[in-house]
Automatic annotation (TrEMBL):
Pfam families: EamA. This is Chloramphenicol-sensitive protein RarD. Belongs to the EamA transporter family. NCBIfam families: rarD.
Length: 304
């Protein structure tokens, strides 16, 4: 597939997904008066209802039977569901606690962590350029660790949880949307039970205490959870993965800009140095990926 034949709808779907993820800090900041754990539980409930109802209307229950009949898929999706719930919770708490810059660092680190997981757990091989990129990015992480002012545990936890989430979803033989639906179903009843308990004990605010605008934001948060994931799954089937890889960095770049320019978080010289190392590593990795994909394209075209 050449640049001229890239599906434009796939490009727009990918761009839209990454822009939504990148602008998420602005949305969750609107809910800063709601406890982070309750935001996560509402996010689980409303996204589950949206995705499951959508699948049932289009496919009945066949998607559930097909996925759950596959070996290892049920317990793998249960584990991936816990990982993504942890990731969501930490991310929302960090945004509303004033750590947007550090969350962006986590999602800059994540692609390179995925590479290491592939090497260590899937026995994938890296080129010399890829090893150099990983080493430079690791130097940036170490620099930030010792010069950030505090250990960047938020960034590393976000990168690790989403990295292992992606690793499990790579191994689980199930499509993206049914996989998201089943993960959500595992979390749905505990989330509903917790919300009902909080409401009945006066700790919740969805029924009566919060404004209708806050309630609406919580419900629409489910849409914002599912929509970019659906758009991403649509895009990766229609455009080269190297293009997706380039566009992936749109989200943490937007998060970083929001943290510094909108929320006024600190971005001093020491943090800039660490980020520059990571950006250089990402650039080397991305350029190497594009070069290799273009080199292989004529060979694939000839063989086909």
């Amino acid at each position: 597939m050449t640049a001229a034949t890239i599906d434009r709808r796939g490009l727009w779907a990918a761009a839209g997904s990454f822009v939504i993820w990148g602008l998420m800090p602005l949305y969750w900041h609107l809910l800063k008066n709601v406890p982070s754990l309750q935001i996560v539980m509402h996010r689980i409930v409303w996204s589950a209802l949206l995705v499951v109802i959508g699948l049932c209307l289009t496919q009945g229950l066949q998607w559930l039977r097909t996925a759950m009949a596959r070996p290892r898929v049920p317990w793998m999706l249960a584990l991936s569901g816990l990982l993504i719930a942890f990731n969501w919770g930490l991310y929302i708490w960090a945004v509303n606690a004033g750590h947007v810059v550090e969350t962006s660092l986590g999602y800059f680190i994540n692609p390179l962590l995925n590479v290491l997981l592939g090497v260590l757990l899937l026995r994938e091989r890296l080129t010399v350029a890829q090893w150099v990129s990983v080493a430079i990015a690791a130097a940036g992480v170490l620099w930030l660790t010792f010069n950030y002012g505090s250990f960047p545990w938020i960034a590393l936890s976000l990168a690790a949880s989403f990295g292992f989430y992606g690793f499990i979803r790579k191994l689980a033989v199930v499509d993206s949307i049914p996989g998201l639906a089943i993960e959500s179903l595992y979390l749905f009843l505990p989330a509903v039970a917790a919300l009902v308990w909080l409401e009945s004990h006066g700790s919740g605010g969805f029924v009566g205490s919060w404004s209708w605008q806050t309630d609406a934001l919580l419900v629409f948060g489910g849409v914002l959870t599912a929509l970019p994931l659906i758009g991403f799954s649509y895009a990766v089937r229609r455009i080269p993965y190297s293009v997706v890889g380039f566009m992936q960095y749109l989200a943490p770049t937007l998060q970083l800009l929001i943290g510094v320019l909108v929320f006024g978080e600190i971005f001093d010289r020491d943090r800039a140095i660490g980020f520059v190392f990571i950006w250089i590593g990402l650039a080397i990795f991305a350029i190497d990926g594009v070069w290799r994909s273009r080199k292989l394209a004529p060979i694939v075209a000839t063989e086909s």
